[in-house]
Amino acid sequence: MYPQVEPYDQGMLDVGDGQLIHWEVSGNPSGKPAVVFHGGPGSGSNPRWREDFDPDHWKLVLWDQRGTGQSTPPASDPATGMEHNTTQHLINDAEKLREHLGIEKWLLIGGSWGSTLILAYAIQHPERVSEIIIPAVTTGRPEELEWITRGLGMFFPDYFDAFQSGVPEEDRDGNLALAYNKLLNSPDAATREKAAWDWNKWDLATITGGDNDFVGTRYEDPVTRYRLARVVSHYWGNDCFLEPNHIFDNLDRLKGIPGVLIHGRNDFGGPLHTAWEVAKRWPDAELVILNDAGHVIMEGNSMDRAITAAVEKFR
């Protein structure tokens, strides 16, 4: 809807633990602050978000979570440890970034994993949140992670068979994300590369509703494949480093914060019932159900249009 303007400021913020996170700010330096929590986990920020925000009105912050995008050290390097990469670390990083930029309150926007991180951040720091917009609602519950790594096999039995066969036989009935994460941290490069390939084949199939051709997608790049698989399996294998139902049990802390939840009825990876349950427990949030949408935001589709409308609503 708007031109994708270049950032007027950017930098690397030292957040401790040897971690530097990359951030950028675009739009109006005196405008209303908004921040994007990107998905994945592990995908890195996407400049496409700038097109949803009027640069004359908004002060838009994008940042790369630990190990992703331009943040360092990169999770795409097998030598980079992941012990300082958890949900609480990322919540703390967002707060340090807000303070660094001198922002009192900001609108939070982001979907999929970004949704889980947004809700966890807002529950911990509700006084720093003006509004929330979430396309593709997730909360990181164990049952949601079990669904996306195993339950979806009822819709994709062929792809699931290949996915499950990618780990040793003794691990196939257990935590598949942890089993893959072990392979992705193997000292053997060939083992890591095959695990990244197998993991992302499953991931792409469930996101698209069956298409897992890497050609023309970010998954073509082996470095990106490895980073995504390693970071996602790290979080999913550890239940997103959240207590079960942590977000659901604390949604009352969002009272008074207006929100828009946008969810596609055809979202295989994150079924609608999660968004429905969040909306019931968060009365200040409006739920927009899109009958023709899935998990992916594409330029001009109904999800994209709904995001634009939500941003305009909170001008």
UniProtKB/TrEMBL annotation:
<dbReference type="Pfam" id="PF00561">
    <property type="entry name" value="Abhydrolase_1"/>
</dbReference>
<keyword id="KW-0378">Hydrolase</keyword>
<dbReference type="InterPro" id="IPR029058">
    <property type="entry name" value="AB_hydrolase_fold"/>
</dbReference>
<dbReference type="InterPro" id="IPR005944">
    <property type="entry name" value="Pro_iminopeptidase"/>
</dbReference>
<dbReference type="GO" id="GO:0004177">
    <property type="term" value="F:aminopeptidase activity"/>
</dbReference>
<keyword id="KW-0031">Aminopeptidase</keyword>
<protein>
    <recommendedName>
        <fullName>Proline iminopeptidase</fullName>
        <ecNumber>3.4.11.5</ecNumber>
    </recommendedName>
</protein>
<keyword id="KW-0963">Cytoplasm</keyword>
<dbReference type="InterPro" id="IPR002410">
    <property type="entry name" value="Peptidase_S33"/>
</dbReference>
<feature type="domain" description="AB hydrolase-1">
    <location>
        <begin position="35"/>
        <end position="299"/>
    </location>
</feature>
<keyword id="KW-0645">Protease</keyword>
<comment type="similarity">
    <text>Belongs to the peptidase S33 family.</text>
</comment>
<dbReference type="InterPro" id="IPR000073">
    <property type="entry name" value="AB_hydrolase_1"/>
</dbReference>
